[in-house]
Specification:
Blueprint: E1 2-3, H1 16-27, H2 37-57, E2 65-68, H3 71-82, E3 88-92, H4 97-106, E4 110-114, H5 121-131, E5 138-142, H6 154-164, E6 168-171, H7 183-186, E7 190-194, E8 206-210, H8 248-264, H9 266-287, E9 290-294, E10 299-304, H10 309-318, E11 321-322, E12 324-326, H11 331-337, E13 344-348, H12 355-364
Parallel strand pairs: 1-11, 3-4, 3-5, 5-6, 6-7
Antiparallel strand pairs: 2-8, 7-8, 9-10, 10-13, 12-13
Helix pairs in contact: 1-8, 2-8, 3-4, 9-12
Length: 365
């Protein structure tokens, strides 16, 4: 199979990832629930995972790295910690449902949407400059569009938020492991990301990076292995946000995935993935019959002119090529880009893809 659906989930993993998961299943239980070797091994593993994530993403201390089930879980914590009914929030026009649905669920939230042309970061930054003022309770913004591979000008957006005293939540679902992500450089309140995409970890893993001094709202209440006499959740991190038995096996795989990213380097990863998608984009433009949205990144969306994206995705799947068609859980992005009626056919690469695979797909098309 030629796998071009890594923006959903990376399928090819470094060999150390499944090996670490298997080892943890056989040797580790739950941290904080016992002082026997299996529980101690789990506690040590979780601390290593937090410590190395803090180093990779520029977080001041490991306790501010929260292990979550996915990026959606992390975004729900962040958004519901900062936004209440009656508040005003600014988002980009390229947000995923993992941002827009929690805001809708809170209710009575005024949402200002900053629209802008695809691949025009200056216009996007200017839009945030106009939209963000001191009446805004939070800015929530994707770092990279999961539909179009558009990398938004996060340094500029973060500077605007700092200047105006507005907390920033960054959705790094598509950028983590591919582009530099720095909690401290941005001065963000929260950064959310999954483990199963650019970090090459297992599904069911994610991270929430918390800025200094943040006291996030507990989304779940329950056992933490600490302060068990109290009925309130602990007021310190990470315990406040990690109720119940944790996904230790997933964290073991995520740790190895992050180590792989650290060894490869995000610049090398972005360059390699971008080259594969650039070859595919160039071939499609030459072939004709496709509207090509080329962000020169690891994600490439197209609209075929002679059929619909779903039909073409099915035909490719029959030939052993994995892609994704439709709205990609981000209808707002399609409204902004003008593809809401059709959706797109999306190709997305990982470090394991090659230019030869891109050429094979072009021949099939």
């Amino acid at each position: 199979m030629i796998y071009f659906d890594s923006a959903a989930t990376t399928l090819q993993k470094p060999a150390a990832v499944p090996a670490a998961v298997a080892d943890a299943i056989h040797t580790m239980t739950t941290p904080g629930r016992g002082d026997h070797p299996a529980a101690r091994l789990a506690a040590e593993l979780m601390l290593r995972c937090r410590t190395e994530a803090a180093e990779l993403f520029d977080v001041s201390q490991p306790d501010n790295v929260i292990l979550t089930a996915n990026a959606t879980h992390a975004l729900n914590i962040a958004i519901k910690s900062l936004v209440s009914p009656g508040d005003t929030v600014v988002i980009s026009g390229y947000e995923h449902n993992a941002v827009t649905r929690p805001l809708h669920a809170i209710g009575n939230v005024s949402v200002r949407i900053v629209n802008g042309r695809l691949f025009d970061p200056e216009q996007m930054a200017e839009g945030f400059r106009r939209a963000v003022d001191r009446s805004v309770s939070a800015v929530v913004c994707t770092h990279m569009s999961n539909v179009f591979g558009y990398v938004l000008p996060m340094d500029d957006i973060a500077a605007i938020c700092r200047e105006r005293g507005v907390p920033l939540i960054v959705d790094a679902s598509q950028s983590a492991g591919i582009h530099p992500v720095s909690l401290r450089r941005w001065g963000a309140a929260y950064v959310a990301m999954p483990g199963h995409k650019g970090l090459y970890g297992p599904q069911g893993t994610g991270l929430l990076l918390c800025g200094e001094g943040r006291r996030p709202r507990a989304l779940l209440e329950g056992g933490t292995g600490s302060l068990s006499r109290l009925q309130e959740m602990p007021d310190f991190l990470p315990d406040r946000l990690e109720a119940g038995t944790q996904n230790v096996h997933g964290a073991a795989g995520l740790l190895e995935g992050m180590r792989f990213v650290g060894r490869m380097g995000v610049e090398r990863i972005a360059r390699r993935e971008g080259e594969v998608m650039a070859a595919l984009a160039a071939g499609l433009k030459k072939k004709g019959g496709y509207q090509v949205f080329d962000g020169r990144s690891s994600v490439l969306s197209v609209v075929p002119q002679r059929t619909d994206p779903e039909t073409l995705a099915d035909r490719l799947a029959a030939k052993g090529v994995a892609v994704r068609a439709g709205l990609h859980c981000a209808p707002l992005a399609h409204v902004t880009a003008g593809t809401a009626e059709t959706g797109t056919l999306r190709f997305s690469a990982s470090l394991f893809n090659t230019a030869e695979e891109a050429e094979q797909v072009l021949e099939m098309l």
